[in-house]
Amino acid sequence: MSAASLISPPLTLAEIPQPQILSLGVLASGSGSNLEAIAQSIRGGALKARIQVLIYNQPGAGVKDRAERLGIPAVLLNHRDYASRADLDRAIVETLKQAGADWVIMAGWMRIVTPVLLDAFPRRVLNIHPSLLPSFRGVGAVEQALSAGVKVTGCTVHYAVPDVDSGPILAQAAVPILPGDTPESLHARVQVQEHQIFPLGIALAAQRERDI
Amino acid sequence: MSAASLISPPLTLAEIPQPQILSLGVLASGSGSNLEAIAQSIRGGALKARIQVLIYNQPGAGVKDRAERLGIPAVLLNHRDYASRADLDRAIVETLKQAGADWVIMAGWMRIVTPVLLDAFPRRVLNIHPSLLPSFRGVGAVEQALSAGVKVTGCTVHYAVPDVDSGPILAQAAVPILPGDTPESLHARVQVQEHQIFPLGIALAAQRERDI
Fold it and tell me: Which neighbouring-strand residues pair with B6?
């Protein structure tokens, strides 16, 4: 059995005009595989962008080492140091502005964002979620899909909005769920597609903004 | 842009053991394209089954002519002639049993079925729905997907249960939503996949029953 996938819109980055170099700020909480994928897409010339800064919230998160290897400045903003989500987001906005970031890329950012961040970068905060939204919002989306017994799941790049995993969708990828799949095997299959559609979704958001 | 699709489980009928000839009764309300797809799958030898009877509920439905062309006995059970859903389902069960059907295939059956039908054919009533369940249950699933702005939708073969579009899933297919899609163009793309996964889902249900 093959594990073919389906990406939609069925475009490659080469098919999307990218007249401007985008300045990205990345927020991440985990290992940073999406940071790596975006950085590699930039290095290969497919995505016209620069990553100005990585902000991470977990001391010791793998993404910090990843950023250092990639030569990306990494700033720790530990959510435990802030009295509220809004206070954390104010620090994030300040850090992003100082770094010269125009777009905010939530690459596995496990914090709920507030209007403080969203209003500072209107229609420029993008998130990735490991399901075919609107199915399986929230945490444990891969596990939710396995428990529900669906045969197809995937991932979604969308604009962040105050409601979690709910903003307008930019790109999606579908993958099969195979007999014997574990959360780990399925998550790995979904992540391969995340790494494809996140750079695609970023380029599509910039294109949509120019077309408005 | 291609319009590739993804079927899961990624199997063909030739890969599923089919030691028995299944006796199917088909329920349909519309044009009967799924009846046609199942009949052609049987004729081509891919699905080991017989269609014993078509039951339709709309006088003048296209599926009646389709059944006649295919040599399938067609019985009109007009829901307006019955006082309740349960009464209609009692007539359906009687017609199916008389025709020798062991499996019930809801191929675009636009009536809510009751435990009268479900309990008469336990785990042998299958439905198809034009979305990737659990997204977009109920009527107008293709329009719901377009309105939601998703980039991937599809169709689902599942066991029928008292809740609409909610039973355990047997097979799903994903298709892209393309720029400029109308409900008609998208529905046509989904239907191509329905015609693939409905015979597959029937064979999988029979296999699952043998494996229990």
Answer: B174
A147 and A55 share one domain: no
| Cβ-defined contact of A152 to B134 (cutoff 8 Å) | no
User: pTM score > 0.90 for this model?
Assistant: yes
Q: What is the ipTM of this complex?
A: 0.91
Question: Which residue ranges of chain A lie beneath pLDDT 50?
Answer: 1-2
A2 domain residue, yes or no: no
Q: SS3 helix, strand, coil % of chain A, rounded to 5? A: 40, 20, 40
pLDDT digits (tens, 9 = 90+) for A97-127: 999 999 999 999 999 999 999 999 999 999 9
* Residue B1 pLDDT greater than 50, yes or no: no
Q: Is A179 within the bounds of a domain?
A: yes
pLDDT for B27-48, tens place per residue?
Answer: 999 999 999 999 999 999 999 9
Q: Which residues of B touch A150 (CB under 8 A)?
A: 132-134, 169, 172
Residues A44, A73 share a domain: yes
Smallest CA–CA distance, residue B120 to chain A, in Å, is: 25
Token reading at B178? 């393309």
B11 touches chain A (CB under 8 A): yes
- Of A122, A156, A188, which marks where a domain is finished? A122
Q: Collect all residues of chain A within an 8 Å Cβ-Cβ radius of residue B11.
A: 1
Regarding whether A145 and A202 lie in a shared domain, the answer is yes
Q: For residue B71, what are the domain limits? A: 21-122
CATH number at residue B47: 3.40.50.170
Is some CB atom of chain B closer than 8 A to the CB atom of A208? no
Contact between residue A169 and residue B25 where contact means Cβ atoms under 8 Å apart: no
Question: What ranges in chain B are assigned the alpha helix state H?
Answer: 33-43, 62-70, 85-99, 115-120, 141-148, 183-211
Residue A183 CB-half CA count within 13 A? 8
Name the domain boundary from B68, B90, B122: B122
> From the candidates A2, A7, A8, A192, which should be mutated to test the interface with B, based on the most B CB atoms within 10 A?
A8
Number of folded domains in chain A? 2
